[in-house]
C-alpha cells in the first residue's frame, strides 16, 4: 500500500492506494470519529461492494446505515442530495457521524456536499471505486451537485478525513468508464507533468488493457500531482484552475447533451483537444504537440471533437456561466507547452470561434 498526503495544515489527510482496501476496517476505523457511520453509494456499486464494507464495519461494532442513490450523472442534483439528509435524520445521526462515500465521482461529490451541509459539517471518508474518482474527484475537496443551467454550480470546498483507493475495484469497471478516467490522467501530463505525458505515450496500451501495475502508477502519479496543486491553492484563487483544463468546453458539452449522455471524462477529452487547438491557434504550442496530445487522447478511446449538434452560440452561452468567469470575462486554461498550463482571460474571440467550428 502506498500513502500520499494532501498537505493542508490542520485539514491535511492521507490518500491510501493499494489492493483489497475496501474491507480494511482497521484502516477505516482510524478515521471514523464516533460510533455512527452512514455509507452513501449507488445501486450499481452497492450490489458489488456494499456488503463487504458493511461486514467490515459491523465487525468493529459501528452503528452503520447506508443510503443507496440512483446511479447516474442525471441524479447529481439537489433532489437526490435530500435522500442522504433523509437517511441521516431518520437514523437520528448527530454531529459525530462519519459519512463514507463508496462509489465514483458522482457519489463522492454528493456525499461530500451532504457532509459539508449536515448539521453544518460532519466528517467524511472517500472510497473511490472508478479510475476517475481515484485519480481526481476524491482528492481536493470540491463537492457539489449540478443545476440544469450548469455543472457543479451548487457546492462547497470540503475536505475528507481520508481517501482509500482500492485498485482492485477497477476490475469490475466498464471499459467506457475506464477511458473516462484516463482523460483526467492525461490531463496531469498536459498541465504540469511532461515526463508523465511521455510515460503515458509509451504505456497507454497497458493502461487501457487494465494492467494493475500501470493503473496503480497512474493513480499514484495523478494523486501526487493533484495533491501538490491543491496544497498550494485549496480554494482555486489561482494555480488550482489549471486542473480545469478542457473543462470550460467539456462542461458546456455535458450540459448541452443532457447530464449523463456524454460522460464527464469524455467531455474533458474533447474539451482538452479544443483548449489545445486554441492554444495552437494563439501561437502557444506547435502543431506537432497538438497532434501528440490528440493522438494520446484518441488512443484512450475518447472523443477528440465536440458533438456536431452544438452551435457556436450555444457553446459561448454555456461557457459564459463557467465558474472561472471574472467581471464578465471568460477565463480559459491554455497550454504553453506540453506539461505547462496557465489561466488567461486574454482570449482572441475570432480564434475561439475558429476552434469551436473546427473541433466538431
Ligand atoms: N470533485 C472533483 O474534484 C471532481 C473531479 C473530477 C470529476 N468530478 C465529477 O465526478 C463525476 C464523474 O465521476 P465518475 O467518472 O466516477 O462517474 P460515476 O460516479 O457516474 O461512475 C461511473 C459509473 O461507474 C459505476 N461504477 C463505479 N464504480 C464501479 C466499479 N468499481 N465497478 C463497476 N461499476 C462501477 C457507477 O455506478 C457509474 O455507473 C462527474 O460528476 C464529475 O463532475 C469531480
Ligand atoms: O479539483 C479541481 O480543481 C478540478 O477542477 C478537477 C476537475 O477535474 C473536476 O471536474 C472539477 O469538479 C471541476 O470543477 P468546477 O469547479 O469546474 O466545477
Ligand atoms: Zn474533471
Task: Give your account of this protein's structure.
The protein has two domains: 2-172, Rossmann fold (3-Layer(aba) Sandwich), CATH 3.40.50; 175-358, Dehydroquinate synthase-like, alpha domain, CATH 1.20.1090. Helices cover 47% and strands 19% of the residues. It is built from 13 helices and eleven strands. It has helices at 25-29, 43-58, 78-90, 105-117, 131-137, 175-192, 194-208, 212-232, 247-257, 264-281, 287-299, 312-319, 349-358; strands at residues 2-6, 13-18, 36-42, 63-69, 98-103, 123-128, 142-147, 150-157, 162-166, 332-337, 340-344. The strands form three sheets. A seven-stranded mixed β-sheet has the order 1-2-9-6-5-3-4, with helices on both faces. Helix 2 (43-58) links the parallel strand 3 (36-42) and strand 4. Helix 9 (247-257) crosses helix 10 (264-281). The longest helix has 21 residues, at 212-232. The protein is globular. Bound molecules: nicotinamide-adenine-dinucleotide, ligand LNCXM5UN and zinc ion (ZN).
Question: What is the topology?
Answer:
Blueprint: E1 2-6, E2 13-18, H1 25-29, E3 36-42, H2 43-58, E4 63-69, H3 78-90, E5 98-103, H4 105-117, E6 123-128, H5 131-137, E7 142-147, E8 150-157, E9 162-166, H6 175-192, H7 194-208, H8 212-232, H9 247-257, H10 264-281, H11 287-299, H12 312-319, E10 332-337, E11 340-344, H13 349-358
Parallel strand pairs: 2-9, 3-4, 3-5, 5-6, 6-9
Antiparallel strand pairs: 1-2, 7-8, 10-11
Task: List all distinct small molecules, including ions and cofactors, that are bound in this structure.
Answer: nicotinamide-adenine-dinucleotide, ligand LNCXM5UN, zinc ion
- Average of the residue pLDDT scores: 98
Q: Major sheet: order of its strands?
A: 1-2-9-6-5-3-4
By CATH, the topology of the largest domain is: Dehydroquinate synthase-like, alpha domain
- Report the order of strands and helices: EEHEHEHEHEHEEEHHHHHHHEEH
Could you tell me the radius of gyration in angstroms?
Answer: 20 Å
What share of residues is helical?
40-55%
Shape: globular
> What is the tally of helical segments?
13
Uncertain stretches: none
Q: How many β-strand stretches? A: 11
Q: What would CATH call the homologous superfamily of the largest domain? A: Dehydroquinate synthase-like - alpha domain
CATH second-level architecture of the largest domain: Up-down Bundle
Distance between the termini: 43 Å
- Domain count: 2
Beta-strand proportion: 15-25%
- Largest sheet entry: 7 strands, mixed
What structural class do you assign from the helix and strand content? alpha/beta
CATH class of the largest domain: Mainly Alpha
Amino acid at each position: 500500500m502506498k500513502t500520499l498526503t494532501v498537505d493542508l495544515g490542520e485539514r491535511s489527510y492521507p490518500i491510501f492506494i493499494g489492493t483489497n482496501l475496501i474491507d480494511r476496517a482497521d484502516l477505516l476505523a482510524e478515521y471514523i470519529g464516533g460510533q455512527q457511520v452512514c455509507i452513501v453509494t449507488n445501486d450499481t456499486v452497492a450490489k458489488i461492494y456494499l456488503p463487504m464494507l458493511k461486514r467490515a464495519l459491523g465487525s468493529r461494532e459501528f452503528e452503520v446505515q447506508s443510503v443507496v442513490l440512483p446511479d447516474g450523472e442525471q441524479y447529481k442534483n439537489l433532489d437526490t442530495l435530500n435522500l442522504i439528509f433523509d437517511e441521516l435524520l431518520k437514523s437520528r445521526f448527530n454531529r459525530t457521524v462519519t459519512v463514507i462515500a463508496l462509489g465514483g465521482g458522482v457519489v463522492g461529490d454528493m456525499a461530500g456536499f451532504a457532509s459539508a451541509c449536515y448539521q453544518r459539517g460532519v466528517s467524511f471518508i472517500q472510497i473511490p471505486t472508478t479510475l476517475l474518482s481515484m485519480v481526481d474527484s476524491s482528492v481536493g475537496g470540491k463537492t457539489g451537485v449540478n443545476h440544469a443551467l450548469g455543472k457543479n454550480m451548487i457546492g462547497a470546498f470540503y475536505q475528507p478525513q481520508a481517501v482509500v483507493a482500492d485498485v482492485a475495484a477497477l476490475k469490475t469497471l466498464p471499459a467506457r468508464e475506464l477511458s473516462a478516467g484516463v482523460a483526467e490522467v492525461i490531463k496531469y501530463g498536459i498541465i504540469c507533468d511532461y515526463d508523465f505525458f511521455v510515460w503515458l505515450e509509451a504505456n497507454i496500451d497497458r493502461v487501457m488493457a487494465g494492467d494493475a501495475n500501470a493503473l496503480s502508477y497512474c493513480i499514484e502519479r495523478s494523486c501526487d500531482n493533484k495533491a501538490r496543486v491543491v496544497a498550494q491553492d485549496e480554494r482555486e484563487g489561482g494555480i488550482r484552475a489549471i486542473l480545469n483544463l478542457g473543462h470550460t468546453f467539456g462542461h458546456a458539452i455535458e450540459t448541452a447533451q443532457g447530464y449523463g449522455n456524454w460522460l464527464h471524462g469524455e467531455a474533458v477529452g474533447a474539451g482538452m483537444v479544443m483548449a489545445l487547438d486554441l492554444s495552437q491557434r494563439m501561437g502557444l504550442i506547435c502543431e506537432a504537440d497538438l497532434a501528440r496530445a490528440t493522438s494520446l487522447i484518441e488512443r484512450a478511446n475518447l472523443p477528440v471533437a465536440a458533438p456536431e449538434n452544438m452551435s457556436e452560440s450555444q457553446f459561448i452561452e454555456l461557457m459564459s456561466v463557467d465558474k472561472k468567469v471574472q467581471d464578465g470575462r471568460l477565463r480559459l486554461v491554455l497550454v504553453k507547452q506540453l506539461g505547462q498550463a496557465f489561466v488567461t482571460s486574454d482570449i482572441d474571440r475570432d480564434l475561439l470561434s475558429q476552434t469551436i467550428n473546427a473541433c466538431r
